[in-house]
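Box S1 | Example of a co-folding query
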Amino acid sequence: MKISKIVLYDEPTVPEIQLEKIREFISNALNIEVEVKGNFFESIDHDMCKKIATTRIFDLKNPFKVHTPSTEEIQIETQNKDMSNRKEMTLYDGFELQNIISKHIPSIENTLHIILTNKLTATFDQNDFRYHARSLISSNPTIISTAGIIEAPAKPKQYYLDLMTNFSENRVEEVMKKYKGEFLEYHDPRLYEILEGYVLQAILYYKTGEAFCDKKECRLFNAHWQKDLFYSQIENKKICKHHQEIINDFNN
Ligand SMILES: [Zn+2]
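Box S1 (continued) | Returned holo structure for zinc ion
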């Protein structure tokens, strides 16, 4: 796909994104025009809020079924609150959400829209027949879920074991404290560096149709573990030869 412009939509409830820095990174790396816009969900009307609320998932073990939203659920969509301090995260079907958003995005030729959101997106996997949280829903528009980046790549194995064997009332807080720093938390300042990698992945995926990189030493690596995410995007922070070549002739 030819891309001559990229539009990034901000998620103001997650200031750690630092979208202006990401804009600079992308426009320098790819030598392309990148426009930053405000929150996509700010200007949507009641009807669209209602449609978005229909994509909520309540049953992780069955394929998508349109949800009939309550007044309160529609209300939540109109407010776009900070979701990070909610005890229970709401899951949204990523493809359904993407489909609804796509009808409200101006389709300008060769422009890729990337929407950042604090909504936790998930997709149904036909292989193990259940929903999984996803950070990235590729297409145009692409959706990048900041909650997905935090929730989808797995934390250390020992974290889950500790959680299972700790029976105190504050077990989640206690175990999280023990492993602090080993995985992303909400309002983590490392988020923007990691997001640079995700935005780059989204663009190259749309451009080439080629799946992510299988080398951990590349920012296009699709990390399944939080520790790999830190390695690819922060510690190593490089791009493999193959992907560097693609980036080099991005618009040739
Ligand atoms: Zn690579």
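Strands lie at 5-9, 33-37, 56-57, 91-93, 111-117, 120-125, 130-134, 136-137, 142-145. The mean pLDDT is 93.
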